[in-house]
Amino acid sequence: MNTPQAVAQQPEGGLGGYKDALKKFAHGALDPLVRGLLAIGIKADHLTAIGFILCVAAGLQFATGHFRMASTLALFSGMCDILDGQVARGGGKVTRFGAFFDSTLDRVAEAAMLMGLSWYYTAQLVDMAVNPNRVLANLQHGLEPITFLLIASMAVLAMVGSFMVSYTRARAEGLGLDCKVGWFERPERMVLLIVAGFFGLGPVIPGALIVLAVFSIATAIQRMVHVWKITRESGPASSEV
Prior knowledge:
Layout: H1 4-9, H2 15-39, H3 44-63, H4 67-90, H5 96-130, H6 132-140, H7 145-174, H8 186-198, H9 204-231
Helix pairs in contact: 2-4, 3-4, 3-5, 4-5, 4-8, 5-6, 5-7, 7-9, 8-9
């Protein structure tokens, strides 16, 4: 019978194997760029900070309705997010603080983008409250005021889901358990948001936010089930609030 540790160390197949292969391909393709960055003295923390700033800027662009510009900024931020780890490894300067710094800013950056979207749709609702003509114009296109409230709520729910995905893994690893499972991790969430943003204003972003909210929460539940499975026979453990 497998022990919890043995289960945790088994390699992932299926979707996990596909994601690993794609990640390996991307890293190989970016190796020449990584060597160039190292040659001019760029450090991993620099790239982490630049990626964070770009993501916050993307959130501001989402908030003002410039969805395509927001996606462009988020795309470059994603490249920085890939490169920072490679630069750290290539320069032989992988540190625990660097990993902590990167993960922390990733959470804030993703929240900034989702907050930007929530702000945009909330602002549309506020504008309709003071501009009845805007309400009538939207009703002609089948858009009731509550639609904007629901979309803004989906953005908030997607943010909660993304935090739960990160928290469940961090809490599991804090207990010494491997928890690299899940259908909808940060790369998938960012790709969906970036692609949807390039479609501009319209029905794509609202649909993407629904997918983000549902699948992020589903991934958090998936991780909870995973941890339950590998701990159910390991005996009682202390709990913290």
